[in-house]
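FAQ
Q: What does a multi-component entry look like?
A: The components come first, one per line:
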Amino acid sequence: MADSDAHDETFEAEALPQMDAVYRFALRLSKSEDRAQDLTQETFLRAYQNWEKYTQGTKVKSWLFTICRNLFLRKEERGKRHDEIVTGVADKDPRQISREATVFMAVRDRDPEGHFWREMVDARVLEAIDDLPDEFREAVVLSDLEGLPYQEVAEIVDVPVGTVKSRLFRGRRILQEALYEYAVQEGIIGEQTAARIRNRGEASK
Amino acid sequence: MKWIHELRRLLRRSNRKISKEALAEAVTCQEAAERIFEWLDNELDPELEAKVGAHLETCARCYPFLVFEEAFQEAIAKVEQSETAPGDLRDRIMQSLETEGFESSGSSSA
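Then the predicted structure of the entire assembly, as tokens:
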């Protein structure tokens, strides 16, 4: 049973240590603790059943994320057509998403070096990321929180690298605007500049 | 012949300067702004990376934008996701794996 032992040993050494990372990814995808737990459990079950398909020593986290995301799409979005799931606001209505650096334009006289970004509480940043539309959230989570290169993000999300770049660009812009609103609410930056951002946003639609 | 060495040194310095300026002018402010995230993420090919970098670091209008976006990127990158898989989830996962035939060596940190 040497093969079976090696199978279990490599799975235990490589896949199981990623449990927290997969759980967090599932949490960011589903925005629900219960669903994240179910997704994590199913991901590891599928991974174990298909472990021989994984090339040991390569990107195990990306492989597990791919399984997790596919399960999420199948499970949570059952009933919708695949292209409706993977093509959302980002690709359908690009004009509605600001490509301009509205936050920078608004604060450049007051805080051009962006010191206020450092005042952000981690929990609030995660909340803002969780509020991003699905396509943008996936890209931002995988690139910014998990630190994966564009190519790996593209493979997990199953889109071209160019689409990853576009989603990241827009996702980060939306995130900046959301965090800026928070900075205003918390008094880190004044209301006057927030109003200017809102006005610019309205004008660009 | 010392003056020849001096002349060569001046020429090399002059070429470097021209080269750096030429690189910076190879992209417009708009192109540099559109590529800023890719540049910060080290995702550009070496040639474009050099052009965009030279522009962002030497353009009086773009440099403040670079500093601002860099501060944003750093703030997001330092965010720690503190959530961990709950203990009962770990137990459930291990149980479901065991029903599939998995045998733990007992050395896993999971």
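Q: Is there any commentary attached?
A: Sometimes. For this entry: The interface with chain A takes residues 33-34, 37-38, 41, 43, 64-65, 67-77, 79-86, 89-90, 92-93, 96-97, 100-105, 107-110 of chain B (CB under 8 Å).
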